[in-house]
Amino acid sequence: MPEKKILSANGNQMVAEAYRQAAPDVVCAYPITPQTTIVENFAKYVAQGRVHTEFVTVESEHSSMSACVGSCAAGARTFTATSSQGLAYMVEELPIASGLRLPIIMANANRAIAAPININCDHSDVMLAANCGWLMFFAENAQEAYDNTLVAIRSAEDHRVLLPAITALDGFITSHAMERCELMDDETVAAFVGEREALYPLLDTANPVAVGSYTNAEPHYEVKKSQRAAMEAARGVIKEYGDKWAQVCGRPFDMVDCYGCEDAELIAVVMGSCAGNLRHVARELRAQGKKVGVARIRVYRPFPAEELAAALGSAKAVAVLDRSETYGGQMGPLALETASALFQAGVSLPLKGYLYGLGGPDVTLDDMRRVFRELELLAAGDASVDTKVAHLGSEKEGE
After folding, report:
1. In principle, which of 174, 188, 269, 293 could form an S-S bond with 11, CB 3.0–4.6 Å?
2. Integer Cα distance of 377 and 274 in angstroms
3. Residue 395's pLDDT band (boundaries 50, 70, 90)?
4. What does the pLDDT look like over 339-367, one tens digit per residue?
C-alpha cells in the first residue's frame, strides 16, 4: 500500500521533492527569486546522493532553457525552474521546446514582471508563456504544487501529447508559506511517473533524425497543426493521469475545482492561491442563504472550456478575477477565456472582470465580499454596476 509522510513544507520544497522522486536525468538551474529554493533544495539532494541527476549550473535563464532543449532532445528527462524576468528571458526558447515536442517540466514561482522591479506575486510572468504551446498547471497551495508536478510529468511525456509543461505556484504566498503537506513514498511516485520513453532521441545513432530543420510554409503549418492536436489530446490525458494520481494519493484532481457551483446563481472564477479567500466568503454567504459558488481553474492550458461552461451553467452572473493585465484588452486573460468558453457553449449571461493583486498587495476578504455584492446587483439588472474591468484593493481606482 502507498505510504504517506505528513510534513510542514512550503511549495518550493514540495516541488523539489517531486523532482527528486521523479529522478530526472538533467536539471538545468539558474537562481531567481522566489524560485531559487526549488533548485537549491534539489542541488542538496544531488550532493547527498539521494538522486543521480546531472545538475547543470548555467549562466542565465536563456542558457537554462537552451540546455533543457538539448538534453531533452537527446532523450533525457529534463526539469528546470524560474520566475518573472527569468521566464521572460526564456521566451525565445519556449516555442522551440514545444515545436520540437520536448516534454520539459518547468516550475514557475509566479512573480510580477518589471518595470517597476517587484519580487512579489502576480501572474504577468507566466502569461507570457500562455501561447507558446506549453501545458500550464496552477497550484492553489503547496500540496497542489507537488501533485501538479507529478501529473504534469506523466501528461507531458505521454506519446499522445509530447509537449513541455509549466507548473505554476504563487510566489511567496505558495512558494514560501509553510503548510501541512503529504508526501508519498518514493517507490509509489517512481511507479506512477515511470521512465521516460523518448521518441527519436538524438543519441540513438542507429536511427538518426534531423531536429530543428528549416521549413517552408506548408510543412511549418503542418507542424503547428500537430501541436494543436497534441494540446487537444492533452485534455483527456491530463484527466486520465489526474484520476490515476487521485486514486494513489486520495486527493481529487479536477481541471476545474468547484465549490457550490451545482446550484449557484453567483459564481466567481479564479486561479491560484486567492481561491481560499473566495471560498471562505462564499461559505459565509451560503450560511446567509445566498446561492454563491467558486470555480477555480487548475489547468490553464489546455483551457478547460467545456468543464468551466458546465460549472457556470446555473449562474445568473459571473465574476472573473485576474492577477495579470492584458493592457488594451477588454478584460484580463482568464476573463477572456471564460467569456469565450461561455460563448462557445451558447451561454449568455452578465460577466464582470476584476484585476487584483498586481505586484503583491493583500487580497482581503472585503475584496471578495465586494465581488459577490456587485455580482448580486449585476444579476438583478442594476444599471449602476459598471461592467468594465475593475481593480480590487486599489485606493486609486483605475489608476
Report:
1. 174
2. 23
3. low
4. 999 999 999 999 999 999 999 999 999 99
> CA 66 to CA 50: how far, in whole Å?
26
Over range 232-239, report the average pLDDT.
98
- Grid cell digits, residue 293: 459558488
Q: Are 260 and 286 in contact (CB under 8 A)?
A: yes
> Is the backbone of residue 346 left (phi > 0), alpha (psi -120 to 50) or beta?
left
CA 100 to mean position of chain CA atoms: 21
Which of these, 101, 49, 114, lies nearest to 75 by C-alpha position?
Answer: 101
Residues in the chain: 399
Q: Measured between alpha carbons, how far is 68 from 23 in angstroms, rounded to an integer?
A: 15
Q: Are the beta carbons of 111 and 209 closer than 8 angstroms?
A: no
- Between β-strands 78-82 and 292-297, what pairing exists: parallel, antiparallel or unpaired? unpaired
CB 137 within 8 A of CB 298: yes
Q: Which ranges of 28-60 does DSSP label H, i.e. alpha helix?
A: 36-47
Spatial contact of 327 and 344, defined as CB atoms under 8 Å apart: no
Cβ within 8 Å of residue 4, ≥6 positions away: 182, 183, 184, 185, 249
Beta-strand ranges (E) seen in the chain are 4-9, 26-29, 54-57, 78-82, 105-110, 135-138, 165-170, 179-184, 256-259, 266-270, 292-297, 299-301, 317-322, 351-355, 390-391
Distance CA 315, CA 41 (A): 44
Contacts with 82 (C-beta within 8 Å, 6 or more apart), sequence order: 30, 32, 35, 61, 64, 90, 106, 107, 108, 109
The pLDDT-based confidence of 182 (bands split at 50, 70, 90) is very high
Written as nine digits, the cell of 192 is: 506512477
- Alpha carbon separation from 121 to 69, 142, 171, 198, 394 (Å, rounded): 27, 15, 5, 35, 16
CA 196 to chain centre: 22
Q: 228 near 303, Cβ under 8 Å?
A: no
